[in-house]
Amino acid sequence: MKKITIAIHGGAGTILRSDMTHELEQEYTAALQAALDSGYAVLARGGSALDAVEAATVLLEDHPLFNAGKGSVFTHTGLHEMDAALMDGRTLGAGAVSGVRNLRNPIALARRIMQETQHVFLSGDGAVSFARAQGLPFEPDEYFYSQTRWEQWQSVVHTDKVLIDHTNEYKDEFPDKKFGTVGAVATDRDGNIAAATSTGGMTNKQWGRIGDSPIIGAGTYANNATCAISCTGHGELFIKAVAAYDVSCLMEYKGLSLDDAMRVVVHDKLVRIGGEGGMIGVDAEGNHALLFNSEGMYRGVRNSDGLNEIGIYK
Questions:
Q1: Any domain includes 175
Q2: Which residue in 181, 187, 197, 226 is the catalytic one?
């Protein structure tokens, strides 16, 4: 029986202790711990890595602090368009969805796409129609509203700017701003691994913009032979770097460890092209790494060796 491990993230970026109230820090910590515990409980009772990462991601999607599900940012037209993906390292099965509206848990739809269709990636109205046919829960627009997100959007709605949560450009206006994507990776007792990622994208995004989160190999990847990875950061750069799959390639073709491979991608390859953010990873032995090149990353890890850690700052 292998060591069981789960790691989660709630976004990476300019996350400074000086900007965080004690109460807000406690709220983030409690939300991260709840998601970590939810995924770990699945693993502890013998459940699969795939079930664990979905369970953890659902809790993060349901929390308004994170830019996914309920906490998703506003698009240029004042709506919420969400993306998600998950991948099973045992079978290389994958499901992904982009541009869906009013769906409570996009990660659940990604799972259904993987298991109930012959496709990997559905988008927009077609994805929504499939979700309704599957009986997945939807919510009204009001469910996704938050005052902070609304104010962020109002600051740029009359421009062609987008707000990337992890930049510091609007620090003075939004000292309690929230940060990006959520995700989870896990190793179960059979040594199978999985990854899941979910996001609301960029504030004021236009034209149906899609980031790295739902793109297999860019923001999400899992293969039992190497690693399971979930990324967070400036999606365009993670797409160009094929960041998640690059970690797997470095492990497969160069024989690097999980930690070493992730360091090459996060601290060298991404930095060279201006890619800010981070990633979490596990391998089939239950090893983990949580790395970022920004000021902080909401993160947590728990395993059967007794480790239970939550982190926010560098």
A1: yes
A2: 181
